[in-house]
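Example record used in the benchmark description.
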Amino acid sequence: MLLTGHQPNYLPYLGFFHKIYHAGMFVIVDNVQFVKRGPFGWMNRNKIRTAEGARWLTVPVLVKGKFEQQIKDTKINTALPWARKHWRTLARSYSKAPYFTRYADFFDETYNKKKWENFCDLSTHLIFFLLKALGIDRPVKIASELGGRGKGDDLILDLCEKTGADAYLHGKHGADYIDEEKFRARGVGCAYQNFEHPVYRQQHLPFLSHLSVVDLLFNHGAESLEILLGRKIYSEKKIS
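Model output (C-alpha cells):
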C-alpha cells in the first residue's frame, strides 16, 4: 500500500491533489510545526487568478510567541474580517467562470455561515470538499489521531507503520533530503511524485500556473481531474 501525506495547506495547488491521486491513502500531517515564513510558508495562504494577475488569499493566524506550535493547535485571528474578504474576492474574480455557480454554495456557506477558530479545521474542511469535487476517492487519515510520532523521516516511517503502508510517495524533490537507507531498513519503499503543471483555459491571459486548485475547478468543472492528470491537453494559444 502506497501512503502519502502533506500538511493541511489552505486551498492547495494542483500538485497537492496529484500526489493524493497517485497514492492509496492520504494522511493530513497536522502534528508538525506551523511554518508561516520561508520556502514552506504556504500553509495559510494561496493564490487565485484575477483580471490584474495572481492574488494571495491569506488566513490570518496567531503566531506571536507560538513559534513551536503545531498546525493542529494554530488559531485563526478572528478579530480580522478575512472570511468575508476571501468570499468577495473569489466571487468577484470568478463569477463569470463557467463552473463557479456549481461550487459557489459551498464556499458561500464556508465563508459566511460558519465560524472558524482553528486553522486546521478550516483547511481540512476545504481539502475534503476539494477531493470530492475533483472525484478523488482515497482514504484520509489524520496524523495526530493516528498518534504519529517523531520528526522528518521518523514521522513518515511511523505513519507508514500505523497505516500498514509498505511504500511512501514523496514530493518530487523528496530525494534531496530523504534517507532512503533508513526506509529500506524498515521495509518501506520510496516513490517520488512526477508532476508537470498543466496548461488549461483561464479567464485571462497570459496563463498563470501554481494557483489554488479552485482556479481549475471554477474554469473546468468535471474535466478538472483529467486536466490535472495531464490527460486533457490545452495550449495557451488554444485558450486565448
